Amino acid sequence: MNSSTYGSKMPRASAEYIKRQSITLPPTEEQKLIVDYIDSITNKVNKTLSSYNSQIDRLKEYKTILINQAVTGKLKVS
Q: How many domains, in total, are found in the chain?
């Protein structure tokens, strides 16, 4: 690949060179297994992010309540 590139600041291969390259793909069944695995990991990550975002929202709400109580004198700050 390096021998087919041109340009010094941002070397790049020609479109013709890229078109001539072959790409090996796994069998369709294996591709489906890979997609299923990635989907399951993505779902776990999304659930975790959702949980963290929910916790962050609750902490922001708690912060607002604490500030409000401190300003109105309902909470003694020492």
A: 1
